[in-house]
C-alpha cells in the first residue's frame, strides 16, 4: 500500500469549511463565538442533556468535572483501569489518589463487582471516593443500572467519560429494542457530568477539543468560569480563583458542526467495517471480535479483536505483519494499573484470580476503522491479518 492505512484518521464531511468560512466572514477568529454556542446546543440536545460546555479537550472536561466535585489532595477517585490516560491524568493534576477498577467481560467496561469491592475497602478505611469516573470504552456503553445503583447507594457522583462513545446508547433507546434496563439513553447522559472528546482520532473531530455535558446548570456555569481564567464579572480583570484557558475556539467548533452533519452516516459505515471484519475472520477460531454488549448499542468507533489464550499467533505478530504492509494497528489500551506512572495505586480486579483488563491488553488488537477506508483497503488489511495465521 502506498498510502498508509491508519487506525482512526479524521474524515471530513465537506461541510466543515462552510462553518469556518462563516467564522472568517464575521471575523469570529476567537475563542468562543456563534459556532461554539451552536455546537454546545447541538451535542447536548443530541445526547439528551440540558447543557453543553465546549472545551479545548476531553481531558480538560474531566479536569473541570473533578474540580466541580471538590477533588483535592489526598482524596480518592475511582476510575476504570482499561482506558486512555486522559481519563485519569486530571486526578493527578489535583494531587488526588486514583483507585483503578477492572473491566467486566461483557462490555469491557467497569465491573460492578470490582466496584463493589473497592467501595467496601474504602468504607473500611473510613474514606469514600469523592467521584467515580466510568469510561464507555471503544464506543460501547458501561452497565449503568448496576454501576449507578452502587454509586447512588454510597452517594458518590459519577463522571461519565464518553470520549469515545458519542452516539452509543444504553438500554432500548438505540436500535437495540430488546434490552430491558431501568436507565436508558445516550452515552454521556448517565454521569452527573458527561465528557466527550473531539480529538483527531475520535468519531467526530474538531482537530482537538472536547465537551462537558450536564443537566446541572451550576456545574456548567462553574466549569465555564474556571475554563475562562476564572474572570470575575468586573470591567477590569479581577481574579479570586486560579483559572484555566480551556475553552474551544470558534474555528474548531465550526469543524465540529460540519462533522455533525454526517454523524449518522459515520455510524453505519463504522458498523459495516466491524461486520466485514467479523465475517472475514469467522473461520479463524483464535479470533474473537469485541463482544457487542447486549444492554446497549455501540457506535462501533474502533474494530477490535482478541486472540484466544491458545492462539499460536501473538497480537504483536499480527501488528508487525500489518505494519510491514504500511497499516497501523495497535494493542488495546494498556490498563492504568499497569502503567509505571500509576505504579503505587490500588487496584480492584474482576475476581481475585481474574484480571480482565490485563488479559484484554495481552490478547487484543485494534484494527483500522476509519470511515473513509475503501473496501479494497479493508480487504487488504483482512488479507494481511489472515496471512499471519497461514504461516503457522
Ligand atoms: C481521547 C480520550 C480522552 C481524552 O480526550 P482528549 O480530547 O484527547 O483530551 C479521555 N478518555 C478517553 C477514554 C479517550 O479515548
TrEMBL record:
Modified sites of kind N6-(pyridoxal phosphate)lysine: 202
Assigned keywords, A-Z: Aminotransferase, Pyridoxal phosphate, Transferase
Keyword Cell membrane tagged: no
Name the record gives this protein: Putative pyridoxal phosphate-dependent aminotransferase EpsN
Entry annotation: catalytic residues: 202
Origin: domain of life: Bacteria
Organism: Ruminiclostridium hungatei
One GO MF term attached to the UniProt entry: transaminase activity
GO BP annotations, alphabetical order: polysaccharide biosynthetic process
Matching PANTHER family: DTDP-4-AMINO-4,6-DIDEOXYGALACTOSE TRANSAMINASE, TRANSAMINASE
EC number(s) reported in the record: 2.6.1.-
Xref: InterPro entries: DegT/StrS_aminotransferase, PyrdxlP-dep_Trfase, PyrdxlP-dep_Trfase_major, PyrdxlP-dep_Trfase_small
Protein family according to the UniProt entry: Belongs to the DegT/DnrJ/EryC1 family.
This protein's record includes keyword NADP: no
Amino acid at each position: 500500500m502506498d498510502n498508509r492505512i491508519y487506525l482512526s484518521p479524521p474524515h471530513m464531511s465537506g461541510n466543515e469549511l462552510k462553518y469556518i468560512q462563516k467564522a472568517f466572514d464575521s471575523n469570529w477568529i476567537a475563542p468562543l463565538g456563534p459556532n461554539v454556542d451552536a455546537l454546545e446546543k447541538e451535542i447536548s440536545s443530541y445526547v439528551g442533556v440540558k447543557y453543553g460546555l465546549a472545551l479545548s479537550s476531553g481531558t480538560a472536561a474531566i479536569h473541570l468535572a473533578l474540580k466541580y466535585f471538590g477533588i483535592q489532595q489526598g482524596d480518592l477517585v475511582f476510575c476504570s483501569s482499561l482506558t486512555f490516560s486522559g481519563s485519569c491524568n486530571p486526578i493527578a493534576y489535583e494531587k488526588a489518589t486514583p483507585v483503578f477498577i477492572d473491566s467486566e467481560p461483557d462490555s469491557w467496561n467497569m465491573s460492578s463487582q470490582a466496584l463493589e469491592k473497592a467501595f467496601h475497602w474504602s468504607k473500611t478505611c473510613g474514606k469514600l471516593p469523592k467521584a467515580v469516573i466510568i469510561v464507555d470504552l471503544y464506543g460501547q456503553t458501561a452497565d449503568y443500572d448496576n454501576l449507578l445503583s452502587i454509586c447512588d447507594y454510597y452517594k458518590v457522583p459519577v463522571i461519565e467519560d464518553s470520549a469515545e462513545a458519542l452516539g452509543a446508547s444504553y438500554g432500548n433507546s438505540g436500535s437495540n429494542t430488546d434490552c430491558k434496563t431501568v436507565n436508558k439513553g445516550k452515552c454521556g447522559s448517565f454521569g452527573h457530568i458527561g465528557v466527550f472528546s473531539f480529538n483527531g482520532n475520535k468519531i467526530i473531530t474538531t482537530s482537538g477539543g472536547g465537551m462537558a455535558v450536564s443537566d446541572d446548570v451550576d456545574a456548567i456555569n462553574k466549569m465555564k468560569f474556571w475554563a475562562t481564567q476564572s474572570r470575575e464579572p468586573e470591567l477590569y480583570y479581577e481574579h479570586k480563583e486560579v483559572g484555566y484557558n480551556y475553552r474551544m475556539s470558534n474555528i474548531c467548533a465550526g469543524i465540529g458542526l460540519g462533522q455533525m452533519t454526517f454523524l449518522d452516516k459515520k455510524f453505519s459505515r463504522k458498523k459495516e467495517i466491524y461486520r466485514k471484519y467479523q465475517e472475514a475472520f469467522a473461520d479463524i477460531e483464535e479470533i474473537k471480535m469485541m463482544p457487542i454488549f447486549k444492554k446497549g448499542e455501540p457506535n462501533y468507533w474502533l474494530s477490535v479483536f482478541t486472540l484466544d489464550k491458545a492462539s499460536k499467533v501473538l497480537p504483536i505478530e499480527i501488528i508487525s505483519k500489518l505494519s510491514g504492509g504500511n497499516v497501523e494497528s495497535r494493542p488495546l489500551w494498556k490498563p492504568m494499573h499497569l502503567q509505571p506512572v500509576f505504579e503505587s495505586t490500588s487496584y480492584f480486579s474482576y475476581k481475585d484470580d481474574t484480571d480482565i483488563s490485563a488479559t484484554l491488553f495481552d490478547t487484543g488488537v485494534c484494527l483500522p476503522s476509519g470511515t473513509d477506508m475503501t473496501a479494497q483497503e479493508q480487504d487488504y488489511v483482512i488479507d494481511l491479518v489472515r496471512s499471519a495465521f497461514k504461516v503457522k
